[in-house]
Specification:
Elements (H helix, E strand, L loop, with lengths): L1 H37 L10 H30 L8 H27 L4 H14 L1 H18 L3 H7 L1 H8 L2 H15 L5 H26 L9
């Protein structure tokens, strides 16, 4: 009973603020590292802080996206319903980190480091999209996440209707596949990171597929004659 009361109180009073700060922590860490760098103090951004920045933001976006996909399985396995209160918040955090990842690539990598004008920056992005498969995949993933972020509000659920909203948000699964492929093609060589992220996504997709199959094969209750 005491444990149940604690979980209810935690879900009601602490879950949302703690989730917010947990999601903000990577961004705050990155801001702190840049403050150290600009002040000349030792930092963890390495010899190429621009590349470190946009890759850190991209990795964070992907990991938070995977966490958002894990919320429903966690709810199903633990029966702890309050976790669903923060699912959209986690998904929105993935969008904002993805937007920051793209912004760092455009602003720091193309505009500042490459010394391009604004026109040259967009031209450079288009050239990368055409020539580099990981950039193509990354832009595809970002395009896919935009409508999910724009509709992650109760008002949009009411406007679209619950069924249409749910169908739209099923696109989070191909989004996860494209994002993992983006990560895999970006890194050099056969590294462990993409395999770990891809394996986690595969487990989550297998779970969702199993739930769908069980819902289709479960015998329907026979209606009693009145």
């Amino acid at each position: 009973m005491a444990k149940s009361a604690f979980l209810r109180a935690f879900g009601k009073h602490w879950l949302k603020p703690l989730t917010f700060w947990a999601l903000a922590l990577p961004g705050l860490w990155l801001i702190w590292q840049w403050a150290l760098l600009l002040s000349g103090a030792p930092n963890d951004l390495g010899f190429n802080p621009i590349e470190k920045t946009h890759r850190f933001l991209g990795d964070t976006a992907l990991r938070i996206l995977l966490i958002s996909l894990a919320v429903t399985p966690f709810r199903d396995l633990t029966r702890w319903l309050p976790i669903m209160k923060v699912r959209r918040r986690i998904g929105l955090a993935a969008f904002w980190y993805a937007a920051a990842h793209l912004g760092a690539y455009l602003g720091l990598d193309l505009y500042l480091a490459a010394g391009m004008s604004l026109t040259g920056m967009w031209a450079g992005l288009w050239e990368d999209v055409v020539k580099r498969i990981y950039i193509t995949l990354g832009m595809t993933a970002f395009i896919l996440i935009i409508p999910l972020a724009l509709t992650s509000f109760n008002s949009m659920v009411r406007r679209l209707g619950a069924k249409a909203w749910q169908i739209l948000h099923y696109s989070v699964y191909p989004l996860g596949v494209v994002a993992c492929l983006h990560y895999g093609f970006m890194v050099k060589g056969n590294q462990l990171g993409p395999w770990i992220h891809g394996g986690i996504l595969a487990l989550l997709l297998a779970y969702r597929a199993g739930v769908w199959i069980r819902s289709r094969t479960r015998p329907q209750p026979i209606a009693r004659a009145s």
